[in-house]
């Protein structure tokens, strides 16, 4: 996990980001998960994330190996939770996390989340909120290992998602 660079995505990163997300979509399918099996996310989603300066990439040896959409203080679906968030202040939302097939299963998704926690703190944000499908076992394991607290359910496009929050020190 050496030579890692974390930075905001640029428009010329769209192809490798989309390839990573497609690989992640295929892994979810192979795992038997229903997450991301409905045409979302798609290339337009990636383009919009980059245009809004909300997409970030993790690079190793000049190659993009992971991606995530990061949004400060805004996720309408999080306004109505069946449960309760740990905090009501500023927060960082993590969406559309993807890791390339080349590094999948080697701890890079967990490393990405650790980098995101540092990124949040550097921006004076001490809460990270994230959601995932009930059957996305790899993501559920990462969130558990990193100490995220299950807060309840939120709904996206008519489907329930498990919602988590971590308060950063």
From TrEMBL:
What protein name is recorded for this chain?
Answer: GNAT family N-acetyltransferase
The reply on keyword Cell inner membrane is no
Keyword line: Transferase
Q: Which InterPro entries match?
A: Acyl_CoA_acyltransferase (IPR016181), GNAT_dom (IPR000182)
What residue stretches are annotated with the N-acetyltransferase domain? 4-169
Q: Name one GO molecular function term.
A: acyltransferase activity, transferring groups other than amino-acyl groups
Report the Pfam families cross-referenced here. Answer: Acetyltransf_1 (PF00583)
């Amino acid at each position: 996990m050496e030579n890692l660079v974390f930075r905001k995505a640029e428009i010329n990163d769209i192809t490798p980001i989309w390839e990573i997300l497609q690989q992640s979509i295929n892994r979810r399918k192979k795992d038997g998960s229903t997450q991301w099996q409905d045409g979302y996310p798609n290339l337009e989603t990636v383009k919009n994330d980059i245009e809004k300066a909300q997409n970030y990439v993790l690079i190793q040896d000049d190659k993009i190996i992971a991606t995530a959409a990061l949004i400060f203080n805004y996720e309408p679906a999080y306004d109505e939770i069946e449960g309760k968030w740990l905090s009501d202040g500023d927060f960082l939302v993590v969406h559309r996390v993807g890791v390339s097939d080349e590094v999948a299963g080697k701890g890079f998704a967990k490393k990405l989340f650790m980098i995101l926690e540092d990124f949040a703190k550097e921006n004076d944000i001490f809460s990270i909120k994230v959601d995932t499908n009930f059957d996305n076992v790899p993501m559920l394991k990462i969130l558990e290992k990193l100490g995220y607290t299950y807060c309840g359910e939120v709904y996206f496009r008519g489907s329930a998602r498990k919602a988590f929050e971590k308060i950063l020190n």
